[in-house]
Design a protein that fits this description.
Elements: H1 2-15, E1 19-26, E2 32-44, E3 49-59, H2 61-105, H3 110-134, E4 141-142, H4 143-157, H5 159-162, E5 165-171, E6 175-176, H6 178-199, E7 206-216, E8 219-226, H7 243-254, E9 258-262, E10 267-274
Parallel strand pairs: 5-7
Antiparallel strand pairs: 1-2, 2-3, 4-6, 7-8, 8-10, 9-10
Helix pairs in contact: 2-3, 3-4, 3-6, 4-6, 6-7
């Protein structure tokens, strides 16, 4: 690494500032060693020109080898995690495709509706792994891009009922690990699906708003609200028999959250939950 060392020396001879630099050198035995050097210029006070240099050289070969081994190990684990997310995503996509085929085989029936709902749930989980596979950070998912893709899929799935419905997403710089992202995605899937199916009369449009904010760290607030007809008064959330609402309650408990429902203008579901386990 002679060129790098000489460039550092020349620079600090001009400035007079101290310097640090790590470089390799080849020993007479033919082995490479890493050296950490620290030095400073001592000037001759009479003229102010560099007179000599003082400093230290330290053998840091073991530390560098450990750093390289750690870096290689982390790179291998990163590749392995990407492959895991990729395979899980592909498996879920296969299940999703099978459910879709079953839906097409039973058009216009209750079976088709159940299969479509199951397809959407599996797709929401597959999206988590797809986002993690494509992300540089394999431990957390960007909620904004994930929720936008999820809701676009739901609009396509319910296009016959949702052609006049608009979904707005208000999420900024919020990330979740996979343990939180999967149940959170399933909750949003259920609440948005219910709103698309039941909130608005036929041929009448409306808006569904999804908002996730960090009111007070480390607590997040998820709000899914619509301006539709509102949740019927006879539906008691605590005793709800529908699979979707039961899933929302179960998943809320899974992420240690609390669920509140507002019925003033349309319906709004608010869930407060910790950002990390």
């Amino acid at each position: 690494d002679r060129p790098g060392v000489m460039a550092v020396l020349e620079q600090h001879l001009e400035t007079g500032a101290s310097y640090t630099y790590d470089y390799r050198c080849l020993t007479k035995a033919g082995t490479w060693k890493w050296i950490a050097t620290f030095g400073q210029v001592v000037k001759w006070n009479g003229v102010g020109q560099p007179e000599r240099m003082s400093g230290t050289h330290k053998d840091i070969s073991e530390r560098k080898q450990a750093e390289q081994a750690l870096s290689q190990s982390l790179a291998e684990k990163s590749v392995m995690l990407q492959e895991i997310h990729h395979r899980v995503k592909n498996n879920l996509q296969m299940i999703s495709s099978l459910l879709n085929l079953q839906t097409q085989a039973n058009p216009g029936t209750k079976v088709a509706e159940i299969m479509q709902e199951s397809h959407n749930r599996v797709q929401s989980m597959a999206l988590v792994h797809e986002n993690l596979y494509q992300s540089k950070n394999l431990s957390q998912i960007n909620l904004e891009s994930y929720v936008r893709e999820l809701t676009n899929n739901l609009l396509r799935s319910y296009r016959s009922r949702s052609s006049l419905t608009r979904i707005t997403v208000a999420i900024t710089n919020i990330y979740l690990d996979i343990e939180r992202a999967v149940p959170c995605g399933l909750i949003i899937n259920e609440l948005v699906s219910n709103a698309l199916k039941y909130a608005f009369p036929q041929h009448q449009g409306g808006e569904i708003r999804i908002q996730i904010t960090q009111a007070k760290a480390p607590t997040l607030t998820l709000m899914v609200a619509d301006n539709g007809m509102g949740l019927p008064p006879e539906i008691n959330l605590e005793q709800a028999q529908t699979l979707g609402l039961r899933m929302v309650k179960t998943l809320t408990r899974q992420i240690s959250g609390t669920l509140t429902v507002y019925r003033t203008t349309g319906t709004a579901f608010q869930i407060n939950f910790p950002q990390s386990p």
